[in-house]
Amino acid sequence: MDRGKFITIEGIEGVGKSTNIAVLVERIEAAGNKVLTTREPGGTPLAEDIRDIVQHRSDEPIPEIAELLLIFAARHQ
Length: 77
What we know:
Layout: H1 17-30, H2 45-55, H3 64-76
């Protein structure tokens, strides 16, 4: 069994992570390799809902500890 590579792209909001990921995926697939992309939080329906809550806060503030626990809940899911 061939083992793949694990590549992470990190950065603050708006720096072009999604754009860079799209370019990397295109180039890696063009070379004949398979690519699996994930994001955090996200990946399952519940984790995507949590992502939406964390990213699009309403008028009700989320305490830092609650946000951390939400991220852990999404990761566990």
